[in-house]
Amino acid sequence: MSSTLAAGSHTSQRRIAFATIIGTTIEWYDFFIYATSAGLVFAQLFFQPAGKEIALLLSFATVGISFLFRPLGAFLAGHFGDVIGRRAMLVATLVLMGVATTLIGVLPTFAQIGIAAPILLLLLRILQGLSAGGEWGGAVLMAVEHAPANRRGRAGSWPQLGVPLGFLLASGVTALMTGLIAPGEAYLQWGWRIPFLLSIVLIVVGFIIRRSVEESPVFAEIAERGQQTKVPIITLFQRHWYLVVLAALVFVGNGTLGYMTTGGFLNNYAISQQNLDTTSVLVAATVAAVVWFFSTLLAGYLADIIGRRNTFLIGFALQAAVVFPVFWLVSHAGLPGLYVALVLISTGLGLTYGPLASWYAEIFPASIRFSGVSITYAIGAVFGGAFAPMISQMLLDATGSTAAVSGYLLTATLLGAAATLCLRDRSGIPLGPDNEAEQASGATMFSPGKPPATLADAR
Length: 459
Description:
This protein is mainly alpha-helical. 79% of the residues lie in helices and 0% in strands. The chain crosses the membrane at residues 28-47, 54-78, 90-123, 161-184, 190-209, 240-261, 281-303, 310-330, 336-356, 368-391, 403-423.
């Protein structure tokens, strides 16, 4: 494939950047609005008969259960993304997420329809999980496969920015509801539904934007030659299972700490354990999302300058340094301490999230790349983020101390760092179907293959 075809025009690059950022922002707004509500209202409205503590655990469990279905979403989207194209999967996953989120906004509570309420809530959360499992792979490949070799790091950070933006939007809308539009009991009665219902407007906008994007040039060339793999998932696990394991562990190191904030645990800890004002905590989370946004953007640029691997290692070092101080800050310094804790967490998260898309894209061969990045990301999310809030709550309940929670976060961070050291930096490797042999070898420090291309070569 020619570099011109792979890179596309500057206009196309801007359109791709806009489409991937907007699309993933909407997708993750939907996902995070649920996680935010899980810690604030779902325990009371859908699981209250179980008792206060069990209800909260059940509410956090529904956050995690959806992650168990993300691999299924990744399998389906990965298969069809490698067979029929990246763009079709982007549109399909966006619509699925929007429909599920909007329906949650009109769902009756336990007091209205009994046990059917939490069952229906869980089913809709599962649909969110299926969508989230398939969306990410398509978005990152559209961005990375359109980009010049020396700009893949920053191009890959575009869809990543949708995660902090989605969290920012979810936290901001919820803070607006609890603080101004429907404070107190009004939020429990009807205010919590508004952020879910807003999803229908966002989906229309996202659908129009994503439909306007051209297909990935890598897949376009594969399709033109008729070289699609019939069952890409089988090829992936037969030949590259070890890459799936290592790359998933890299994301475990990021996701476990990340879902302390996006999964609602830290917010709930600050509100219920430290008695901080709900709206003030949500505003702090919104500020943290802004920091996360800029650190993710910075990480994309750093990945093109010092490499994906080095950027990850810096981020994991920062994460390891903050996992114990963050709870002390919240406990001893109140709201200012929460701000500092969230800023520290968000900076480390950005550095270990921004380069993820470009690195994942560069370690899997073109013909199975959608399956590879989607399934790896989904598996990493299951073991890194799925039940992190629930596990942390159980550790806190069992020990009465946050030290066990911090130890859990540190273990996950060190696992991510160890997996990072096992993978090679592949910056600049050709991504097209003509280079499948090179793409299929040498991705780990233990496997044979030519040394990774330098950034100077990529230029």
